[in-house]
């Protein structure tokens, strides 16, 4: 059974006349009659009563017509959905991120994308920073929110779209002697105890912060490591030590912590989204356009 046979059958059923059906189908009457005869043969039933004066549907024909209408309805729905998927109007978008990205444009970008493409399913995966590239390469996530390191090796396989440059600020307990300063140099905290993200959970930021300290001429005195950015801030609020954090986090625990800008602007960090060169789906391209709308 072919789709063309069903199309011919429906038109003959609508016209109850082989000649008029052939005209509407832009086919010969002989071709239409042949297709209907072939369909009846394949089904083993008579679909039309034919006389020299008229054509009528049999009970079998009426039953088939009802179901064929449903078939064409579902087929058109499938075609419409395929077109919508091709244009990014439906489907799935999996976004990977690590905790600190929740204080960036991520929530706003996801919200705007949902508003524009409400039928696309968005799956969010929080991951340790070092797993983002691995998950992208394995095809388990479509887009990653990460720190842009200007890594030429990763750019061979991935697109990078930096969306903000974050300053680093010092998080100090409210009553710390340095909390009254308008800005501080990294060297001013050489003797201070530091709270850091656990390197196993966030090796990218851990290594960056330690590198900045060593470039300044000292190794940080790390007295406590934490599994999340929120935990780092909480431990500073508790007076355990000081911390280096991104400026986007400087509204947390404001009653207990003072955030002091860093004098050295050279230590700023770029945040970006990344995705594979080979992932050219409409959903990824449209999400990148949404992120671009947040870039000043």
Automatic annotation (TrEMBL):
The yes or no answer to whether the keyword Repeat is present is no
Q: Which CDD domains match?
A: PBP2_LTTR_aromatics_like (cd08414)
Query: What are the record keywords, sorted?
Result: DNA-binding, Transcription, Transcription regulation
The record's GO molecular-function terms, alphabetically, read: DNA binding; DNA-binding transcription factor activity
Gene3D superfamilies assigned to the protein according to its UniProt record, in alphabetical order: Periplasmic binding protein-like II, Winged helix-like DNA-binding domain superfamily/Winged helix DNA-binding domain
Q: Which InterPro entries match?
A: LysR_HTH_N, LysR_subst-bd, WH-like_DNA-bd_sf, WH_DNA-bd_sf
Q: Output the Gene Ontology cellular-component terms.
A: protein-DNA complex
Give the source's domain of life in one word: Bacteria
Q: What range(s) does the HTH lysR-type domain occupy? A: 1-58
User: What family does the Swiss-Prot or TrEMBL record give for this protein?
Assistant: Belongs to the LysR transcriptional regulatory family.
Protein name as it appears in the record: LysR family transcriptional regulator
Q: Which organism is it from?
A: Paenibacillus agri
User: Source taxonomy lineage?
Assistant: Bacteria, Bacillati, Bacillota, Bacilli, Bacillales
């Amino acid at each position: 059974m072919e789709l063309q046979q069903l199309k011919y059958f429906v038109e003959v059923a609508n016209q109850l006349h082989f000649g008029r059906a052939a005209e509407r189908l832009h086919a010969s009457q002989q071709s239409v009659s042949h297709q209907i005869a072939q369909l009846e043969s394949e089904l083993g039933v008579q679909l039309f009563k034919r006389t020299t004066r008229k054509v009528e549907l049999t009970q079998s024909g009426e039953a088939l017509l009802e179901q064929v209408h449903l078939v064409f309805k579902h087929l058109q729905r499938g075609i419409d959905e395929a077109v919508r998927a091709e244009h990014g109007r439906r489907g799935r978008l999996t976004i990977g991120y690590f905790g600190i990205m929740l204080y960036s444009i991520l929530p706003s970008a996801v919200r705007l994308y949902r508003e524009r493409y409400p039928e696309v399913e968005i799956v969010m995966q929080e991951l340790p920073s070092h797993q983002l590239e691995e998950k992208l390469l394995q095809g388990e996530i479509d887009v990653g929110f990460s720190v842009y390191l200007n890594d030429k090796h990763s750019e061979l396989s991935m697109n990078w779209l930096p969306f903000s440059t974050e300053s680093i600020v010092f998080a100090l307990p409210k009553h710390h002697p340095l909390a009254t300063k308008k800005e501080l140099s990294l060297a001013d905290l050489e003797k201070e105890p530091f709270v850091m993200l656990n390197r196993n959970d966030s090796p990218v930021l851990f290594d960056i912060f330690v590198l900045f300290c060593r470039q300044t001429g000292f190794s940080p005195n790390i007295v406590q490591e934490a599994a999340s950015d929120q935990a780092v801030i909480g431990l500073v609020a508790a007076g355990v030590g000081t911390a280096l954090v991104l400026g986007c986090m400087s509204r947390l625990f404001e009653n207990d912590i003072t955030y002091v800008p860093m004098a050295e602007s050279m230590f700023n960090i770029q945040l970006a989204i990344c995705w594979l060169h080979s992932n050219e789906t409409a959903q990824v391209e449209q999400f990148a356009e949404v992120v671009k709308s947040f870039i000043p």
